[in-house]
Amino acid sequence: MLIFIVRVLYFLVCAGALYNFIDQPTLDLPYTTAIVLFLFLLFVTQVFTVIDVVIKQKRIEIISSIYFGLLVGALLNYLMLQAFEPFRDQLASMKITGDEASSALDVMFIIELLSPLILSYISISFLLQTKDDFRFVIPYVEFSRELKGGRPLVLDSSALIDGRIADVSETQIIESQLIVPSFILKEVQDIADSSDKNRRIRGRRGLDVLDKLQKSANSEVTVFRSAGVERKDLSNDQRLVELAVELGGRIVTNDFNLNKVANLQGVAAINLNDVANALKPRFVPGDLLRTKIAKEGESAGQGVGFLDDGTMVVCEQAAVLIGKEIDVIVTSVLQNSAGRMIFGRQSDSNDAS
Asked: Domain 153-277: which topology?
C-alpha cells in the first residue's frame, strides 16, 4: 500500500512539474502542441514506474554497485578533465591556423564526450563483478534491520522436516540468517502432497516448522530464489552446495550423504545429529546410569533401553528384565552422525535388590 501511495505521488508531482514547465510564457506553444508535449513527457516519466513494477525482485547490492560506479566514474572524469585543462589553455594561447585549432578542439570535445560514458561503464562493471569483495569498503544500506550474524545458514528439506532447527532458533543461539531455497520449499510441498501417509505427515511437519521459524522473533528466515541454481540438470543436493557457495554460507542438514558431498566440495555443513550429540550428557566407561529395559537386543541375552533424550542403551544379560528399571554400568560408547549408543552391564546393586 505504501509503495502504491509513493507511485501516485510521483505521478502527481511529475504532472504538476511538467504543467508548470509548459505553461511558461517564454515557451508560447500552440495549445495542441503543448498538450502533445505534456503527454509525451509525462509518458517518459511513467516509463520508469512501469519498469519498477515489472522488475519484482531487486537486489540492494546491485543498485549500490551501479550508484557507486556512477559516482566513481564521475569523479574520475572530473579529475581527467582537470588534467587536460592546461592543454586546453595552451591550445587557446597558441597562434595556429583556424583549421588546426578546429581539429584540436574537436579532439578535446570527443574526449570530454566519451570519457564520462567509458569511465562510468568501467566503474560499474568492476563493482558488479567484485561486489562481494567490496562489502567491507562499501556499506550497503539496510532499510528495515541489519542482517544478523555473518555467514547465512542454508536449510535443506531434512532439517525442516526434522524440526529441531526451530527449537534451536528459539534458544537465540543462532545469529545468522536462515535461507530456505525455493527448490527445497517445493520439495517439502511435494512430500506434503504425497499419497503415502507417512511422507505426507513428514512434509506437513516441515511446512509447519518453516511457518514457526518465519513467525519467530528470534530468527530471520528468507525463502531465496536464485536463477543460477534452478537448472534442471542438477540434483537438489548439488543445488544446495552451489547456492551455499554463491551466498558464502553453510548448509544445515540431517542427510549424512549431503554432509559428505558438501565437505568434499569445500562447503561447510552442519549436521543436526552432530549438534544434538554434542549437547547430550557425556558418559564414559565406569559411569552409572539408570534405564528401563524396553525390548530384547540383537544378540542373545541383550536388553535394550532408552534414555530420556532417546539414546539407546544396550545392556548385557538383561533380556529377562524387560519392563524393569535397572542400574547399568557403562562399558563403552559408540557415537557417530547417526546417533549415540551406550553399551553396559548390570550393576551389582540390581542383584542386591
From this structure: Rossmann fold (3.40.50)
